[in-house]
Fold:
Amino acid sequence: MSVWDILEIEETNDAQAIKKAYRVKLRQHHPEEDPEGFQRVREAYEKALVSLNQARENVQETVPETVLELSIEDAADSQAVQEVGVSERQPDPHHPFEEALNRLLADPERRFQPEQWLSWIEQIQMLSISQQQHISDAAVDIVLANRWLPGEVIEWLWQGLSWQLLLTGTQQQSEVGEFLNSWRKQEMSVDLSHLSVLSGAEQRAALSFLRPFHIALGYGDTEALRQVVHQPMPALVLPSVQYQVSLLQAFLATNTYPETITGQMIERLIASPAESLAIEQWEVIGEISVRLGHTEAVDQVTDRLLTLNAFAEVAEIQYQRTLGNQNMLALCYAFLRQQWQPLPPVYWRAERRLFPAPESDVDRRLFDWLFGQLTEYDHPAFNHRLDFAGLDGLPALMVKAFWAGRSGSWAWIESLRKQLSTAETDADSTRLVTLTLHWIEQKLALQTGCLSLRQKLSSYETDAFFDVEPLTGDEVNSQTKAEWLECVIRHPVIPDSWFYRLMDEEILVREELWEVSSYPMYADSLSFFRCANPDFRLSSCWQDRPFEGMFDWTLFCFTHMSPVGLARQAIIDALPSLPESQRDGPFAKLLPFAAQPQTYLPDALRALDEHPEQFVFRSILDAQITLLTRTCDQPQLTELAKAGEVAACCALSRLLEREHFDEAIVYWNLTAAALDRHPHFEDAVAWQQQSLLRLRAEKGLEQESYLVTEPGFMHALLTKDKAWFIPPAEMADYSPVDEAKNFHYPMYHLLTQLHLGLGEKGYDLSSLKMFSHRRELQTDLQRETTDVAIAHLEAMYQRRLEQDIQVKGKKAVAFSKINLLCLLVVFCTAWLFSFPSTFGELGKQDIFHLSHSGRSFAKLFFTPLFVYLLWQISSAMIEKRNKYKFVLYSGAVLWVAQSSQSLFCAIVTIVTLFSTTYGLTDLLANGGWEKRVVKSRIVNLRKVLGLKEKKR
Structure:
C-alpha cells in the first residue's frame, strides 16, 4: 500500500494538501487508541514530505528526527504548527519594528539579553491595537522560522505580545498557541548569559543541540538521548553547572562515559563549594564517579554531601562504591539508605543488586536480618539483645546498632553509640560509622517522656532496673498512649508496679494487645500474657531471691515466647552461671530444653508443672508438641499417648484433624481434660480448639443442636466448660442409635468422666463395656483411639486409688465381692434349710430336714440375713435408682417364691442376687474401692471392661 493510499489522496506536490490529509487521518488514528495506525500514518506523511524534495533546513537545525519522535505530545505540537500553514521562510519585513526584531535575532551579542527584548516590547506596546496585532502576527511567523530559539525568549514574547490570546482564537490559532505555550515552558540547563559569549553559529549549534537534548532527557527516552549525546556538541563544555550535571545525568542514563570530557567535568564540579550545588546534583556527580571508579572523587563528593547533611545520598553512593568488594559494608549502607529514603521492597527484591548470601553462619545471620529490613520482613535472626551473643567485629557492631535503633532499649542504644564512637575503623569503614552515629543520634532524639522517666529507663538492661521506683503520675502523663506502647515494646521486662499501673491507666489493654502484632515477637507476647495473668509477679522467675545477672536470665526466660533467634544453649553459655539458690527454680527448668532442643523431653515437661504461674513455659510446651508432630509418625505418637503423654495426644489431634476429624476431637478432649494437672497446656489446647472449630465450619458439620444419641454429637465436644457436659448418670435415659454404639456414644461417656473427674461416688461403667462388645465393628483407628482413651481413664482411676490409700488407709476399702459372694452362699443355704419345700424335689432330701427347733431358728435367721445381704449389695451400687430397683425386685421375687412355693421364682431370686453381685464394679463406688483393688494397688480398667489385655 503506497503512502498516498494511506493518506487517501492523489499523488501531489502540494504540501498543504498533504498536511490537510495528514490532519484528517490523525483524527481517525489517535495515538493512544490506535498507536499502530498512528505510526503508519506518521511514516506515510514523512515519506510524502520527503518526496516533495523541499528544503527542511530550519527543521533539521531545531530537532533531529529521532528527537522529534520523543513523544506523541511533542510530535502533535510540532505538527499543529505545520497544519496552520505558517511559512517556514522568514517573511519580508513591512514594518520598522519587524526589521528591528530581525536585527535583534541576527545579533549574537544582543539576542539573549532580556533588556533588549523588553525595550523592543515596550515600544510595541506604545502602538495602536491594530499595529500591535500586525506586529504580533509577524513576530509569530518570524519565531516559527527560527525554532532554535530558547524557551525564555518565547516566554518574553508570550507575555509582552499577549500570545495567550491565541489559545482562545480559531482552531488554527489555538493550535499555534498550544505549540508556543509548550515551547516557552521548555527549560534549558544553560543560562542565556553563557551563550552570549559565543559566536552566532556557535549559539545556533548549541541551541540546536540543547533543545532536543532536554526534550529527550525530560521524557526519559534513552534511545533518543543516546543519539543526541553522540553528536559532537557534548565536547563543548559550557560553563553552566546545571548543563554539565545534566550532561553527566545523560551519560548515566545511556551508559555512555566519554572519559576525557567526563573527567574534566567531574574535576571542575567537585572543586565547587558544597552549597553551590543542589544535593541531587552532587548525587549525580557521585554516581558517575562510582561508575568510572574515581575513588578520590567519590570521597570528595561524600564529604560535600555530609556537609549538607545529605545522609541518604551518602549512603546510596557508598553502597554503590562498596558493592562487589566489601559486600557487608554495602549492605549496611543499603540499610541506612532505606531508613532515610525508603525504596519499595520490590526494588530490593528485583531491581537492586544484592550479593549472594555468605556461607559463614555468622555473616549469614547478619545478611539475613539486613536483607529482611530492606524487604520489610523482620527476619528472625535477631529477636532480642541476647541473640547477638558471640558476634564480634565492626559489621556485627553495625547490625547491633541498627537492630537497637529499630527495636532496642534506649539504654542499649546509648551504650552502642559510645562503642561506635571509640571503635577502630579503617578508611573504608569510617564513613559508615559516621553515618551510623548520625542515624543513632536521630533515633535518640526521638525518645519521649520526662527527664525522671528517662533516668529510670537508663538503668534498663541491668539488675538495678528491678529496684526502680514506681511510676509517678507526671511520668505516666509525659507520654501518650502510643508512645507508651512503643516504650513497652522497647522495654518489655518492666517491673510489676510499672506494668500494672499502665494497665490501670488503660494504656495496656488485653483486648487491644490481642488485635495487634508487634516486633520483637517475644515483647508483644510478653505484654499480652502479663495482661492476661494479672496475678503473675516478675520476681517469681527468680523465686524472690535476687542474684547477679538476673536481668539477663529474666530476659532469656521470656525470649522463649518466640521460637526464633540464636540457639538457646549458645545464649546460656554467654550468661553468668546460675547460683545454687536458683537450681530448683524456673530458670533451671529451661536448661534441658536449651541443651536438647530437638529432643522430646517428657520428664522435663512434667517438671514445668511445679511452676504453673510461669506462662512462658506454655511456649516451651507448644514447641515440644510441634517437635513431636514433625519428628514422629502416627504409630509412634499413639504409643506415647497410651503411655500417658498428653503432648502426644495434642500432636495426634493436629496430625489427624484434616482426614480423621472425629478422632482428632477425641485426642483434643484427652488433652483438655488434663489441664487441671498440666496447666501449661492451656494455650496449646486453645489454639487447637480454634483450629478444630474452623475445620468443623469448613466441613459443614456445624449444627444448631446435636443429639447425644447420634455419632454427630462428637462434633459438639469442642468445649472446656465442664458445666456443659451431661453427667454419665443422666445418660442412662438415652438409647443411642446402632451406629453410635460402636465408638461415639461410649467415647462420650469416657470423655465426660475425664472432664468431670471421679467425684466421691464414681461412675457406672456399663456404658463403656460397649467398647468390648462392639470392638470388631470399629475401624483400626477407632480401636487405637479407644485404647488410648481407656489408658487415660485408667490412669485417672489409678491416681485416685493411690490418693485414697494415702489419705484413708484401710478405710479406702468399701466392699469385697468375694465376701458378698460368700454371704450369698450362706443365704442360699439358709433358705434351703428353712424352706426346703420351695425347692421342690431338692428340698425333700433328708439332709435338708432339720428338727423343729432347728428349722425355727433357721427361719428366724433367714429374713435378717436376706435384708443384710440386700443392704451389702446395694451399698456397692452407685446409682440410687438402681439400688431401689434391685431391692424392690429381689424382695418381690423372694416373696412370690415363698408364698407360692415356686421353684422358678426361687431360681430367679438367686440368679438375680448372684448376677448383681458379680456385676458390681471392681473399682470406685460410693467413695470406696473393692478390696482386691486396694490390696493389689493396681487398676486394670481393660479387664473391668472385658477387653483383651495388651502386651506391656
